[in-house]
Design brief:
This protein is of the alpha/beta class. The chain folds into two domains: about 270 residues, 3-Layer(aba) Sandwich (Aminopeptidase); about 110 residues, Alpha-Beta Plaits. The protein is built from eleven helices and 14 strands. The strands form three sheets. The protein has an eight-stranded mixed β-sheet with strand order 1-2-4-3-5-14-6-12. Strands 9-10-8-11 form a four-stranded antiparallel β-sheet. It has a two-stranded parallel sheet with strand order 7-13. Strand 3, helix 3 and strand 4 form a beta-alpha-beta unit. The radius of gyration is 23 Å and the shape is elongated. About 50% of the residues are buried. Belongs to the peptidase M20A family.
């Protein structure tokens, strides 16, 4: 990557310094597309009917490997999930495979797919529906995270939780809180009661389940009986089936609160369900072996799959095509946890950038191996087909 290293650093900084939310990644989209145009790589902006997606491709015939680039940010705290590093590592991996294909003249195609709206917007779900993965033999990406309790450089073979989000909107009846409170129906009471019910439900859920709840709206004045309250709920479980069951149980908490307070309740879905992650064993092994060869250590214990508490729409992709979604550690200080302002700072460091380039080498290695090694490609598909969804 030496010939484009400085440009990649600048692109990484541009994405980090201009955080953009779901489906509004206009600057990131333009900067990445311009980068590819400058290097005379075929790129389609606004791909698959999405304003901030793109598709770059190099090569002819053969198999197809797709590197997934994420570049959306979080409200208020920017790139606290390090998506600038995800985009950078995937771009670097693309150029690595491109160089190998150009040098060897072997058949095969490498793609970089712009994947907007991972932070709750389900961008990859829309891309699946639009056919972005129809002819793909493997989808590959990596995600930065803080270092865990071990000394390894990251995790190759891992999974995550399925997830969804929705809102409960309670409607009551406003009234003068001092003169005629008995004439009102307090929607905030329903919100508070549902919050308590969900807290009690947590006692009776699986260790892999998560219920994260906030009261988003709860009135504007103490002098008015609240006629509208909104509770936002995030639900996570080990599998999509368990997720849908838990989401249904949570909905009963809202129904009960509405009944008890004489309010009505309506629901607003915030995102399509994210699947758990099916890590392809063959890809994970190959990645860990390559990284070991360059002095890096990535956990790949096929007898014990690490399950992170995060969720990603890459999980949906992993049910569609063979997929690799590893995690790599970047240097962090105390308190710089992922989804915090501290991690935003960590994600812009030169050390984090260098680690993203290191893992890009491993991503490129397994991507090119898939394109040129028939036996390995068969192993990847066998692994995918034998991994029966839980």
């Amino acid at each position: 990557m030496g010939e484009i290293d400085q440009e990649l650093q600048e692109l990484n900084a541009q994405i980090h310094e201009n955080p953009e939310l779901c489906y509004r990644e206009v600057k990131a989209h333009q900067n990445i597309v311009s980068f590819f145009m400058k290097h005379k790589v075929s790129v389609t902006p606004h791909a698959f009917g999405m304003d901030t997606s793109f598709l770059a491709e190099y090569g002819k015939g053969g198999r197809v490997v797709t590197f997934c680039a994420e570049y959306d940010a979080l409200p208020d705290i920017g790139h606290a999930c390090g998506h600038n590093l995800i985009a950078t590592s995937s771009i670097a991996a693309f150029f690595g495979v491109r160089a190998a294909l150009a040098a060897t003249k072997l058949p095969g195609r490498v793609r970089l797919l712009g994947c907007p709206a991972e932070e709750g917007g389900g961008g990859k779900i829309r891309l699946i529906e639009a056919g972005a993965f129809t002819d793909v033999d493997a989808a590959i990406m990596m995600h930065p995270c803080p270092r865990g309790i071990d000394a390894k450089d990251g995790i190759s073979f891992g999974s995550c939780l399925a997830a969804t989000r929705y809102k409960a909107v309670f409607s009551g009846l406003s009234a003068h809180a001092g003169a005629f409170p008995w004439m009102g129906i307090n929607a905030l009471d329903a919100a508070a009661l549902s919050y308590s019910a969900l807290s009690m439900l947590r006692q009776h859920i699986r260790p892999t389940d998560r219920l994260n709840v906030i009261i988003e709206e709860g009135g504007q004045s103490t002098n008015v009986i609240v006629d509208r309250a909104v509770v936002a709920l995030g639900v996570r479980s080990a599998t999509k089936q368990e997720l849908l069951h838990l989401a249904s149980r949570a909905r009963q908490c809202f129904e009960g609160a509405a009944l008890a307070t004489q309010c009505t309740v309506e629901y607003v879905d915030e995102m399509k369900p994210y699947d758990d992650l099916r890590s392809n064993k063959a890809l994970c092994i190959a990645f860990s072996e390559y990284m070991e060869s360059i002095g890096r250590s990535f956990a790949c214990d096929l007898q014990y799959q690490f399950v992170g508490g995060y969720s990603t729409d890459m999980g949906n992709v992993s049910y569609d095509v063979p997929s690799f979604h590893g995690n790599f550690h970047i240097p962090t200080k105390s308190g710089q946890n992922i989804h915090s302002a501290g991690f935003t700072d960590a994600a812009q460091s030169i050390e984090a950038y260098k680690m993203a380039i290191e893992v890009a080498r491993g991503m490129a290695a397994i991507g090119f191996k898939l394109l040129q090694d028939e036996a390995f490609a068969n192993d990847v598909w066998k692994s995918f087909e034998s991994d029966v969804p839980r």
